[in-house]
Amino acid sequence: MIKVLIVDDHDLFAEGVKSMFKPDDGITVTCHTTNGNEAPSILEAEAVDVILMDIDMPVLDGIATMDLLKRKGYDIPTLMLTMHQSMRRIRGALSKGAQGYILKDASKSELVEAIHKVSQRQNYFHPKVNDMVFDYFKGKTAAKNSLQELSEREIEIIQCLSEGKNTKAISEALFISEHTVKTHRRNIMQKLNVNTSAELVKLAMDRELI
Fold this sequence. Notes:
Layout: E1 2-7, H1 11-20, E2 27-33, H2 39-45, E3 50-53, H3 62-71, E4 78-82, H4 87-95, E5 100-103, H5 108-119, E6 124-125, H6 127-148, H7 152-162, H8 167-174, H9 178-192, H10 197-206
Parallel strand pairs: 1-2, 1-3, 3-4, 4-5, 5-6
Helix pairs in contact: 7-9, 7-10, 8-9
């Protein structure tokens, strides 16, 4: 039997989820809290196999709760159960170690499948967010590959842009013509699929290129 802790500030919702599971599902909700700060003390007293974690909670949100548990030394598979399907939220949850992400409008069979997979340390993503996650990681891989294609001169130009230098200042610093600077910058933006120098610098910083 998979023992589940629900961390969700809506009692009625948590009770609904708890009553949903039957013995044949192999899942039981052993405890529930509306406050993420209480999760460590619950886990100290209760053996739990999976955490069902909401994102929006008034005292401590789900992502912050995951961070708290990590700092306390807990490593329990966590399935985010939420209405949010923005990539920012999904990315935040994954960065803190979430094993899966399912929406609150999921069917019972989907939730049962998700809990079983997460309990085995397998990833599970709700069908509505699965494509978003795939596209996100595909984009990260593409960006990484594009950065690897940059020449040493192109990296120097990105560094200059990050320092606030304009075309003339870059040409003087690198001893090349302004036309060459513009050509390099255009090629860099095409390679990295960005439209402005600000986007270019941000991407380079995110990927720790500069």
